[in-house]
Amino acid sequence: MVVTTDIGNVQDIHPKNKQEVGRRLGLAARAIAHGEELVHSGPLFKSVAFKDGKAIVSFDHVGGGLMAKGDALTHFQVAGADGKFVDAEASIEGDRIVVHSDMVPKPQAVRFGFSDVAEPNLFNKEGLPASPFRTDGE
Description:
This protein is mainly β. The protein has a domain at 42-133. The chain is 11% helix and 32% strand. The two termini are 21 Å apart.
């Protein structure tokens, strides 16, 4: 499977850009089935730590580093003990994303791209999009 959140259409599940879908599937096949050493996936959630009112999210498949397509990262949310998610600010710090919201002083969960109409903009520098995730196991 490959992530297509950046080339899909929120009104239609079938991406019109079939060439890019095929390119991404080809990268995955080359790496997984043929053992080529290349970046074949966008960032995948690895772990989260909570400290000083912030969530620090780590990823696998960061490739040459993380980047936002656009001015600021989008579609990150945090929740506290009540489990109610609110929109949050997120920033890239090295190979991690730091997420916080003034509305949630003690975050306990993070989610990213967790909406049917989300068009998140977190990528690795190879241009592959991050996969949506949530950390609370729901």
